[in-house]
Design goal:
The complex is a heterodimer of chains A (282) and B (256). With 282 residues, chain A is α/β, with parallel strands linked by helices. Chain A contains 10 helices and 12 strands. The relative contact order of chain A is 0.17. Chain B has 256 residues and is mainly alpha-helical. In chain B, 85% of the residues lie in helices and 0% in strands. Chain B has 9 helices and no strands. Chain B is elongated. Classes of the chains: A alpha/beta (282), B mainly alpha (256). Chains A and B meet through helix 3, strand 6 and helix 4 of A and helix 5 of B.
């Protein structure tokens, strides 16, 4: 499929030209399959530090698997995955645990530990790293304040709504200020208002901490909002990118049946002549 | 499913089970040590299983005395009831029945707890947060089960012998002193060794199989139910088969 490869290369170049430093995430010709069925084929892209890559596409297109590959939770059949210059696909488990200290992940269904309170869920990583209780308390409060859930600190996941659980999952992911954040469908199964709240939090995280992020979503609204809005620190609200422009740090990637159908910014996506992309956007 | 594929899956399962068990064992000496999890599991498995083990041990000893005294009486050997009860309890029934009880209670508990965590991505979340789930979830369960099952079995052996003694004296008219003298006199070190080795191995079987089926759960809540059932069935079968193998080995080595 030459056109697909061209687009992949063009998108990769676009990402590379934004910064000359070492990419935060780099996929090179990655293949992945289950039981003889190919889930991802020939995936190549790079994401620079400070960039946000939004993965779009229909359900079952391999988006979540791509995130898990990035975190070393799954291993590819072929190809190379580098995160902060380290080859994840051939790394030993012990080394992966060290690398993951720099990576935060928000799971599709939040994946909160249901036997632990919100406080213990958010503090989990810090406890594992042996931080003092005073330090843990301060950072848990800071994290929960960021997602505006300080009042729920002593509740258990079962007592929270779906949106609140996602916010706790975000607080848990960001508590150690990771260099890379992976969001797996953070708005999946939520109502539009709660989805907007979650996307605003993702935007706030992007614009306040300038971290690198990969975000999976099947909602075009999420991608459009992240690409056209930015978070204003002063007003503590989102606002349109000046001049009706697009956020320069946000790139979009559309997956189609395990391959890359599009990689570029929002304007390029809207101008794309590919029939599949046109149908997807319609 | 074709036979070849069936066979491939079984071999793969044995490989995964072996790798998980080996990793859980080698993790014992590696930091970090999850002592809180270890104590919690020891409490859950050991203290939590006390009522069921006490009742099983006591009544097994009682019924053993009742049944054996009737048969032994036909040969004029009713007086050796104490020996039969204590030997049977310590070498065989104590370890096996205690293990089966703990298996029904805890292998299923481990499989369902870890299975639920698996299908809700909590285990992946744990990995993503920099924790080795084998170290945090499997190793403490393995150590706790092996350690606590040993003491539960000793308790069950003692209560079984006492239960047998109570039946022998109150229902069969045997002398208590004679019963306990016979129960003690014929016990030898190899018998004690057999009674101690068995729960150690059975404890490993219960925890490793319970954790394996939990960690390999697929397919939502239905998968959790399937894992729970399989954990109890497989651990019970393995306990009984391993019991036979150990007994044969002990007889081969010690001649009794």
């Amino acid at each position: 499929m030459p056109s697909e490869i061209d687009r992949t290369s063009a998108g990769a170049d676009l990402a590379t030209t934004n910064s000359q430093q070492e990419p935060a995430v780099e996929f090179k010709r990655v293949w992945m399959g289950f039981d003889g069925h190919s889930v991802l084929h020939n995936i190549s892209f790079t994401t620079q530090s400070g960039q946000m890559l939004i993965l779009l596409g229909p359900a079952g297109g391999g988006k979540s698997i791509l995130l898990k590959l990035c975190n070393g939770l799954m291993q590819p059949d072929r190809g190379s995955i580098c995160v902060f210059g380290q080859e994840v696909s051939s790394m030993a488990q012990e080394q992966l645990f060290v690398l993951r200290r720099d990576i935060g992940m928000v799971f599709q269904e939040s994946a909160l530990f249901d036997s632990l309170s919100v406080r213990d869920n958010v503090a989990y990583r810090l406890r594992e790293e042996g931080e003092s209780e005073q330090e843990i308390n301060e950072r848990v409060t800071e994290s929960l304040r960021f997602v505006e859930l300080e009042d729920a600190i002593d509740k258990f996941p079962a007592e929270l709504s779906g949106g609140m659980r996602r916010r706790v999952a975000i607080a848990r992911a960001i508590i150690s200020h990771p260099k890379l954040l992976l969001y797996d469908s953070p708005t999946g199964g939520l109502d539009p208002i709660t989805s907007t709240t979650i996307i605003e939090l993702v935007m706030k995280q992007r614009d306040v901490y300038n971290g690198t992020a990969l975000l999976v979503t099947h909602r075009l609204q999420d991608a459009f909002m992240l690409a056209t809005y930015r978070f204003n620190h002063q007003t503590n609200q989102r606002e349109r990118v000046p001049g009706n422009g697009i956020d320069p740090h946000t790139t979009l990637m559309v997956l189609r049946e395990g391959g890359i159908a599009f990689l570029g910014n929002l304007i390029e996506l809207l101008r794309c002549e590919d029939p599949y992309i046109k149908e997807y956007l319609a | 499913m074709p036979f070849g594929e069936f066979l491939r899956q079984r071999v793969l399962a044995v490989q995964e089970y072996s790798l998980m068990s080996w990793a859980a064992i080698t993790n014992i000496g590696r930091r970090p040590f999850y002592m809180t999890d270890l104590y919690t599991q020891a409490d859950l498995i050991g203290v939590g299983s006390l009522p069921i083990v006490i009742l099983t041990g006591f009544f097994t000893g009682g019924v053993l005395a009742l049944q054996s005294a009737t048969t032994l009486g036909q040969f004029g050997a009713k007086s050796v009831t104490g020996e039969l009860v204590s030997l049977s309890m310590i070498k065989e029934l104590g370890p096996v029945l205690t293990s089966l009880m703990v298996s029904g209670r805890n292998a299923s508990g481990m499989a369902s707890e870890l299975g639920s965590m698996q299908v809700t991505e909590q285990i992946d979340a744990m990995r993503a947060l920099g924790t080795d789930p084998l170290k945090k979830l499997v190793t403490p369960r393995l150590i706790s089960t092996v350690f606590m099952l040993l003491f539960l079995t000793i308790l069950s052996d003692a209560l079984g012998t006492i239960g047998g003694g109570l039946v022998a004296t109150t229902m069969l008219g045997l002398d208590a002193s004679q019963y306990f003298h016979m129960a003690y006199q014929f016990l030898m070190y190899p018998d004690i060794l057999e009674g101690v080795v068995k729960p150690l191995i059975f404890g490993f079987i219960i925890a490793s199989i319970g954790c394996y089926f939990g960690m390999s759960t697929r397919g939502g809540t239905q998968g959790v139910g399937r894992s729970t059932t399989q954990a109890v069935v497989f651990s019970s079968i393995f306990i009984i088969v391993t019991d036979f193998v150990i007994s044969r080995l002990m007889i081969g080595v010690f001649g009794r």
